[in-house]
Amino acid sequence: xxxxxxxxxxxxxxxxxxxxxxxxxxxxxxxxxxxxxxxxxxxxxxxxxxxxxxxxxxxxxxxxxxxxxxxxxxxxxxxxxxxxxxxxxxxxxxxxxxxxxxxxxxxxxxxxxxxxxxxxxxxxxxxxxxxxxxxxxxxxxxxxxxxxxxxxxxxxxxxxxxxxxxxxxxxxxxxxxxxxxxxxxxxxxxxxxxxxxxxxxxxxxxxxxxxxxxxxxxxxxxxxxxxxxxxxxxxxxxxxxxxxxxxxxxxxxxxxxxxxxxxxxxxxxxxxxxxxxxxxxxxxxxxxxxxxxxxxxxxxxxxxxxxxxxxxxxxxxxxxxxxxxxxxxxxxxxxxxxxxxxxxxxxxxxxxxxxxxxxxxxxxxxxxxxxxxxxxxxxxxxxxxxxxxxxxxxxxxxxxxxxxxxxxxxxxxxxxxxxxxxxxxxxxxxxxxxxxxxxxxxxxxxxxxxxxxxxxxxxxxxxxxxxxxxxxxxxxxxxxxxxxxxxxxxxxxxxxxxxxxxxxxxxxxxxxxxxxxxxxxxxxxxxxxxxxxxxxxxxxxxxxxxxxxxxxxxx
Length: 555
What we know:
The protein is of the alpha/beta class. It contains 16 helices and twelve strands. Helix 2 runs antiparallel to helix 10.
């Protein structure tokens, strides 16, 4: 089974030792059965049998404990490696590919599939023990009478085949349930993240519940119920199968094959002893199947993550203030399918050049391609055509991570970490406190040990904290995507009239995506996009003929 193969790949030594310990424990269990049967029929060997009985009673728990401890270590190790491995893959895959996969699939794999895979490890010791008991019982019956064993095996094989057919159908429903689980997880994200929109719009809330959430939840429930119901019927037949075998043994086979009462008693005891191990084995199969489905899902996700080149970290390091002379986009193009449209949206070809100390405003209507252009500029999207060049050198895959280290960014959909990860801790608290004062946040947020005291603030205040992080990174190029959109008039003026000019005065290049046309006059250049094409890319001083159209107050 695939799950066993995966565990063998992870830690062959631990798994083999655990399985051996489980087999010894199972064999010892069957040994107890043989001792009991011998004691019932051989009164003269009581002392020897008693000593053997005591030894086996000690061996059974010791080997079981060893097996479970070994597999507990294996399970936790596998869980750690899977989570870290998938996290590394996510960090190493191009952003565009991750956006296509969707966060719900990634989260479902990390929080649902991986625990399902590793939880099965705790079942393996019990499974090994019971398989060993079953095989030992069969060996014991063969030692008593090979003809009887063959007859019993024929009956058991027929029973197993009749059991596996419905079980296969049950597993099919479980796979479908897992697929619906992905969709359900996505809907739950919509429920939690869109709760305000759902609360304020009654018809939307009703449609979400009845047309989106309910059908998926119903399908998830239907497949789970069908799978479990079919399996329950099959499991009941499996339990009955033991008594069918005993009935055939006592009332049919005993009349056909000449056997002694001792052999008949031994077979009956062995088959009864087999009942619990067989039930455990059959009850474990659905969990093994779920783990295999989860493993397949993670593997498929891994395969879908790996076709594109992994973005490994560059060995080059970028020191603060490292000089750069020119950043170019030469004939850069990128295409994608926008929601609700059949045709591809094509950005470019784009030819742009940026130099140190520039304050550039990037403007354009919604859907004009501003955010896509910014992701190309940042190296988050790879150009489909053309190339990025830094200081005249093409930005290759090998230097992509190094290239990105030139940028400090506050995205429109930014994420705010509560600590300054990856920054030099020397005097960081003092620097952060100075910026907090400048951004009028010192009365709400403190910094201690490179950690913010709180991030539970308004959206505008959180954006100021994101700006604080960008300041502390102190990189050559700053990009702000609609930073001032959530700020009140006071902080808008502070941003445009104080913060941006201060960055420019330090020799930083600032690229601000904005619709605030009343502040365009503080910039050096204005780049306007329309339908994926650059309409304007000129210094402010040369825009007098089109100032009225752009809304730029040029003196």
